[in-house]
Amino acid sequence: MSGQLPPEVEEFARYLRALTRGLDAGTGWYGVFALRDPEGLRACLDGLEVPPWDLVQSLLQDLSAQRGPQIAEDAAARAATLYRASVAAHDTGPGAREALQGRLDGMLRQQHNAATRERDLRAAVSAAEDTAAR
Fold first, then answer.
1. Contact assessment for residue 109 and residue 102, using Cβ atoms and an 8 Å cutoff
2. For residue 126, what are the domain limits?
3. What was the pLDDT predicted at 2?
């Protein structure tokens, strides 16, 4: 998406930035995401991408661990509402179809690569078992 963000996307991004400001970036899932994919995390915090819900849940787990389960539970309810609105706005905006198709293509490639790696590992395990049985 380019240009001005839809209000729903901006509101969720603002919420996500506020949530992460309250977290220790050196620990928990937030620390993992910041280390592994800082550009992807920045895109989510800027509203350029809507993160997968499991990423949001992981941040809420960090919030629970750092500030308590009641605070995280309250935050989760608000996050879910904003998230749904953000996804709906993001996925229906200009260029959304192409972006979604690109994301789907990438996921299908990852799935294919994972299946190939699984077959290779199963073959290696089988070969190792055959060698160990001799």
1. no
2. 95-134
3. 46
Does 84 lie in the same domain as 40?
Answer: yes
Find, among 30, 31, 8, 4, the residue nearest to 19 by Cα: 30
Question: Are 65 and 125 within one domain?
Answer: no
6 contacts 91 by C-beta, under 8 angstroms: no
Q: How many domains does the chain have?
A: 2
Give pLDDT tens digits for 10-22. 999 999 999 999 9
> Angle at the Cα of 51 (from 48 to 53), degrees rounded to 5?
155
Q: What would the two tokens of residue 101 be?
A: 């198709």
Q: Do 84 and 115 belong to one domain?
A: no
Per-residue pLDDT at 130 exceeds 80: yes
